Amino acid sequence: MGVEIAVTGLTKTFGSQTIWRDVTLTLPAGEISVMLGPSGTGKSVFLKTLVGLLKPDRGSIVIDGKDLTRLREHDLYEVRKLFGVLFQDGALFGSMTLFDNVAFPLREHTKKTEAEIARIVHEKMELVGLEGAEKKLPGEISGGMRKRAGLARALVLDPEILLIDEPDSGLDPVRTSYINQLFVDLNAQIEATFLIVTHDINTARTVPDNIGLLYHRHLAMFGPREMLLSSEEPVVRQFLNAQTIGPIGMSEEKDADELAAESGRELPPLPPIPPQLGTSDGRPRRGERPAGEWCREHGVTPPPGSFQTAGALTPPRQTEYAAELATAAAPGPAGGPVGAVGEVD
After folding, report:
1. Which residues form the ABC transporter domain (predicted)?
2. Which range of residues forms the domain containing residue 17?
């Protein structure tokens, strides 16, 4: 079962540079949350601060009743065992096989026998669709496979919290769809608390239960997916809908002249809110909510066409996806000839 992460008044600086200040949010236990933001807004710094690799200047991070910012190193080490981390590039050891990479945390942090380690490694590699690739080196596999190997390594200690840093970087849209489905299925199976940092708007619009947006050294908004996808807040609306009209410029903020030039221009309509990605076998998830529930509860009229299944936003194809991922050679999410690893024979 995942655990709640309560962040209050978190502030981080490097010298005279403020990365973000007074960040306050609660990551609900067992749910999938996504953190967005323009490049350079400190999303990866936020992940490193959550796991205790960086110390904030102010604020608290309470996990399982303990404030990480005030723990001694020994106690912090124990709390870190709750975490699994998937780094951007997988962060695999190039000279080790995938088996040894995935086994590394078990050999470092447990006293399990090699037979027990082998059983766990095979279980986790099968879970991410890498069964049969145990003897390969990281340099012999694709970027998508390296991501999944890194995910298997993050899972071997059965974490209650998974931090995932830009899992879509370097992946094509098909592999991004596969790994998104994998996250949803894993969340249903292990019920860990997920926090995904991403720039991929389709991922942000379809995968999470909650969305946060860092901008201009603060947390612009954090809340349920439907709240942000129906928001009229300028920076949220602009970023989540990939629009040019709004306060975000090519660097970060637009200057007064740019904003004045946009004054009076009609904003494009909000696009429909897509259905949330479901599990491949149809099982419910802890954080899953009925489509449109938040909008109904708060009297918000969603954009026309919201929650309708169409094209690439159709719900998962139930159990056939699980078989595809296990064999790593079957039709892609749109029914084409691309599998999780490569082309189908």
Report:
1. 5-241
2. 5-82+159-324
Continuous H helices in the chain: 43-50, 73-80, 98-109, 114-127, 143-155, 173-190, 201-206, 225-229, 234-240, 256-262, 293-297, 319-327
Considering the domain boundaries, does residue 339 fall inside one?
A: no
Inter-residue contact 196 to 180 (CB < 8 Å):
no
Structural domains counted in the chain: 1
- Give the separation between CA 40 and CA 152, rounded to whole angstroms: 28
* CA distances, 148 to each of 34, 265, 324 (Å): 19, 44, 15
**CATH number for the domain harbouring residue 43:** 3.40.50.300
pTM: 0.85
* Mean pLDDT confidence for 241-265: 65
pLDDT tens per residue across span 172-225: 888 889 889 999 999 999 999 999 999 889 999 999 999 999 998 999 999 999
